[in-house]
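PT: before anyone asks, these are the final sequences, not the draft ones from last week. 438 residues across everything. Please model them as a single complex and drop the result in this thread when it's through.
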Amino acid sequence: MVIRRRYRVTVNGKTYEVEVEEEGEGALRVRAEEVSYGKLKGAILSPVPGKVVKLRVGVGDKVSKDDLIAVIESMKALVEVKSPYEGVVREVKVKEGDFVNINQVIVIIN
Amino acid sequence: MVSEAKFEQLKRQMIVALKLSPLSESELSKKLDTNLVVVKRLLSALRDEGFYIIEKDGRYFFYMDRIFFHDVGDRIRTSVIGRKILFYKEVDSTMDIAREKSFHEGLVVLAEKQRKGRGRRNRPWFSPGGGLWFSIVLKPRMPPNYVPLVNLMSSLAVAKAIRDLVSLRASLRWPNDVIINGRKVCGVISEAEYSRGEISSVIVGVGVNVNIEKESLPEELREIATSLYVEAGYPIPPLPLLCKILENMDKSYASLLKGKYQNIVNNWKYYSSTIGSQVEVVLDSEVIKGKALDLDDYGRLVLLTEGGDVKVISSGELKRLRARSSLE
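LR: through. Structure below.
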């Protein structure tokens, strides 16, 4: 039985997805991947792989923190993606019905 | 016309009579010394109050006293799910109530009936008395990309409980339907909120068709839906089933929080009728045919298409399923 856990770790302002795998007593294998929004400020990413079933914003829209941006369906779970930022929508990268991957950019806000 | 007091008295007499033996409407009318119209009114009044009275071959069985879902809390042994339980006789939707109270992890909202039960995409979900309709509030502190596994975990909990308690061969259809003899007996939906890099809450809705007679299913559902009562041929006590489902979910949820995603996925595969079968996945405009090979760690369906490609599916409607053996 391999136990694998994922963490999101922020070091000096950069965020990493870290996957830790136990390889027997005292041995760990660690993989880390920088989360892209650490680089691309204002980007809102899809947390899950799935389909965009609702897109609530367009270019030029003002958004506040916690406004609903999109709803992604993944394994029939609906995930409401809310904005962590306040600002204006600069780019919309997907449309309703599109399939998105994990951490794919949905919209960019500044 | 009978007076209200007389009607109440007849209700009690009817319970006593039905507890002794199954009776037809005309036998009831003789026994209670009243007419058939009143008998019908009495039956429906008792059912509305939550008494389980089941009809079979023209006779009515008194199956059990009202279930007091209030007792659930004392009966279950769980660490998170069901720490608090709210019970309603009738609501619009347990999902809406759970959403309003989404700060309370482990809360279970139960209703005897839902007026506006909903499935995915706001499709109506038929929820009369006799089913288990409930929503659960979860606040999983885990990487958001694994959160859809909550859906798989919930359908798994129901299939396991049915197999253990009812001895019916319940199986799972990707991603979250519980199927008996090719028909759906339980549906699961979940609605998650994602903000500032984390999932703040997941509301899981579960609907199990327990003691619902075939005739009372809407016609358009009879081909695709069933109930435990229809499949088993006898009524199923809902309370032990509910407790078992909540206990199963609680255990799976604990392992999900520990990062044991493969546990959920492997167990799901064990109960699945999808893996190994020929399936059709309906995406918006496209239908992909192929063989369901596996589930990945995120719960996505790995499909070998007829063209020989391997596709990983995270969203889509699974249609027509040819079972892998005649036993299914």
